[in-house]
Specification:
binds adenosine-5'-triphosphate, four-stranded antiparallel sheet, six-stranded mixed sheet, alpha/beta, 10 strands, binds magnesium ion
Length: 261
């Protein structure tokens, strides 16, 4: 039996900005399998967002190939590509002048889905992300909490029934309880809808708990990738240090809390 080809493949990808002055990605190769939950971690400016933007062709690679579902993204109609790839931006980035239902329905409307059907789909998606449709569908983004905005952004990313969802630090700006609840809810959706998810996060605990596999970026290169437990015993100092952060923090917390009791 042949191994299924990966859903997303980066092969020797280079990307620079400002006429080559900023080398954002250097010879990056990475395979993401169908139905995988992949987290991308690494310092600020290491190239994580750049990597994600290449997959739905918000930008093009200088060298190398990015393919989605076996097709080079440069040879696919960008509209069709973006329909099969949902994107949740670093900040929810909802359209401020549109209601929650309007935001969620934007892609279906642009694709020519009838208004009634689009409205029904928005309600269905609101329920899916655990927002009460009757209470939330007519609100505007400024009438939502941060967590509600992120839930709406997830619903919008799922509106065209994509197989792949790219998420750029989706829960970064939320309080820890809301963040945990949203991450758990999203993971359940990932399983239920049989999605392939690529999520950028700065939170190592979140990455270790959620991901099937983690990719570690450093200064535009892919330092290492693998399962959380394999990376936790990495010989690479940076990777090892990063993956062991949650355990180290827990130990420090335990020491402090023991003193307090
Ligand atoms: N449109 C652009 N024009 C010029 N430079 C850019 C552009 N986009 C990204 N860069 C540069 O490319 C490098 C990688 O940026 P990228 O946004 O991918 O980092 P990141 O890992 O997502 O960082 P963060 O964790 O802070 O979001 C940075 O040096 C950044 O300044
Ligand atoms: Mg980024």
């Amino acid at each position: 039996m042949s191994t299924p080809s990966p859903t997303i493949r980066y092969a020797h990808v280079d990307k620079s900005f400002d006429g080559g002055r900023v080398q954002a990605l250097r010879d990056v190769s990475l395979d993401i399998a169908e139905r995988e939950f992949r987290c991308i971690v690494g310092g600020s400016g290491s190239g994580k967002t750049t990597l994600l933007r290449l997959a739905n062709r918000l930008i093009d690679a200088d060298n190398g190939v990015v393919s989605v579902a076996g097709e080079d993204v440069c040879s696919v109609d960008p509209i069709r590509l973006r329909r099969s790839v949902g994107y949740v931006f670093q900040s929810a980035a909802l359209f401020p002048h549109m209601t929650v239902a309007g935001n969620i329905g934007i892609t279906p409307s642009l694709l020519g889905v009838a208004p009634k059907e689009t409205a029904e789909r928005a309600d269905e998606l609101l329920t899916l992300v655990r927002l009460d449709a009757t209470r939330y569908r007519d609100r505007y983004p400024h009438e939502l909490s941060g967590g509600e905005k992120q839930r709406t952004a997830v619903a919008r990313a799922l509106a065209a029934k994509p197989r792949i969802v790219l998420m750029d630090e989706p829960f970064g700006a939320l309080d820890p309880l809301t963040r945990d609840a949203l991450a758990d809810d999203y993971h359940a959706l990932h399983d239920e809808l049989k999605l392939t998810t690529v999520m950028i996060t700065h939170d190592m605990t979140e990455a270790i708990v959620l991901a099937d596999r983690i990719a570690v970026m450093q200064a535009g290169t892919m330092v290492e990738e693998g399962t959380p437990s394999a990376l936790a015993v990495s010989r690479n100092d940076y990777v090892g240090e990063l993956l062991r952060t949650p355990r180290r923090q827990t130990q420090r917390l335990n020491a402090v809390l023991k003193d307090a009791s």
